[in-house]
Specification:
The complex is a heterodimer. By secondary structure, chain A is an all-alpha fold. Chain A has helices at about 5-20, 45-55, 70, 75-85. Chain B is an alpha/beta fold. In chain B, strand 23 and strand 24 (about 425) form a beta hairpin. The chains are: A mainly alpha, B alpha/beta.
Amino acid sequence: MSNDPSTIRAAVRAYILENLMFSSNAADLPDDASLLDRGIIDSTGVLELVMFIEERFHIKVKDSDMLPQNFDTVDHLTRFVGSLASAA
Amino acid sequence: MTIGTPRLLQDALLDAAADPARREHVALIVEGVPHRYHELADAARRLAAALAARGVERGARVAIYMDNTWPCVVSIYAALVAGGVVMLVNPQTKADKLAFVLADSGAAVLLSDAHLQKEYAAALAGLELPPRLIVSNGSGTDAEDFDSLVAATAPLSEPSATIPLDLAALIYTSGSTGHPKGVMQTHQSMVFAAGSLIEYLRLDAHARILCALPLAFDYGLYQLLMSVALGATLVLERSFTYPAQVFERMRETRATAFPGVPTVFAMLLAAHARSPLRFPDVTRVTNTAAALPDDVARRLREVFPNALIYKMYGLTECKRVSYLEPERIDDKPGSVGKAIPGTEVYLLDADGAPVPPGSTGVLHVRGPHVMLGYWNRPEQSAHMLKPGRLPGERVLCTQDHFRMDEQGYLYFVGRSDDIIKTRGEKVSPVEVENVLHAIAGVREAAVVGVADALLGEAVRAYVVRVPGAELGERRVRAECAAKLENFMVPKDIVFCADLPKTATGKVSRKALLENPPAGLPA
């Protein structure tokens, strides 16, 4: 399975839209929108997102990496998952 | 400024700012940025003048629909300084409910954050008499911008005519009817409650309280009120969404007090199990909103080796009822302790007669912390407030069942309503059911709380579809997420053929819990 940025971005977007926003409208989720500001994510939402990216990309997220700079937007997530996946 | 005992909630702030010894002390650290007492008082008095110019007079309700931010704290004190009544609304609240509380309270002004525009704009559009709008980071919106307004307005110089019997806050709480009710609290009641909590928590001016609880939750609000009353420091975090960030702030600020709810402590202990955590600077850990299991309290000592751990019980209608002295945590397992200082509690049976030790009765609370009633809800107020011992006095009948041991320690037995407690938040099943019933394709729905290791209780919805309706779990969830706060959205959705009924034809939540109907494919 390829883990290039566009694959990661598409998978992360699809997961958030489907499971955290329950939306099928891609325009509802700009890549630079803060998930916290928009009320899309909360403490259990972050845990769900971590489980998803760990399974989907075969990576391990450390507790100390669960920070807004890695999780708060689709852009941040794409970069974060990309850096872990390339290190794996 | 004032001499002697503070009478109004804002007195402590204004006094600290006027005292050369305390004015430079850090009142708040918000997302890592420190703010001193004189800065907070100055910003609050400027915004108070702006509020007064926009129609906020003594007794006017000021709605604050904001995240845990510096503007939120300034708004709270500005509303008080202007003589207004603080009405905090959880930023997770969606448009319909926001519109309801704005209309119900008759708020004169709404303060919000630009990122909440989608919800507040929809709420205001539906109101006949919308409040004046002030928005933080609002320069790109059509509302007045918070920062510009504070900068451009001279501080209010004349104190308002407020006396301690005036309302300080209207705190909306979920009720079993499905509509939230505004708990009316006066200045004297809140000044008293903050003082009582400070006393039993043994806090002083050196305290640094880390608050990641929403200020819109009275447990969060009182962290601020206590901290300011002490002239101490509040470390304010936006939420517990990113625990690692909260832990880092706790270390960096050497926080001494950490208030939480069981879900937060469960997450903290899960993180501790993966990679050990230790916060030796913390000397106070408090829990309320839902029972803290005894084994959790024990394991928290590994993370907080120098902390007194407090188990507490309360309801918004009187802020807090009881606390267990931390020294008794091992010999009084399961207890939430005794009445907070300056108050008393007793148990009565259904006929109003005292209950002997060991038997179950309804908890009654007597003290200056008891609410004045629910805003514009005389019948519901009368249900909770009963005549007391002295002429004209009213005591709070909590409607919750408790037992008391020979030494007067309280043990929670159960609620007398169907309210669900999830992540420490109250969820009215009726409120969720109302949203479910409005979804096309739903014939019937019922909502219950089921035991959940992390959440305490999880919200479960049973849904009966109209025959032939194309309705899946995803759409039900989407409709709920659009109308309800995140914690109210059902975690489980079970489609079933029918719901169990009582003899009078009403859906029986008791039967749903005892004999859950079989689920159909989604």
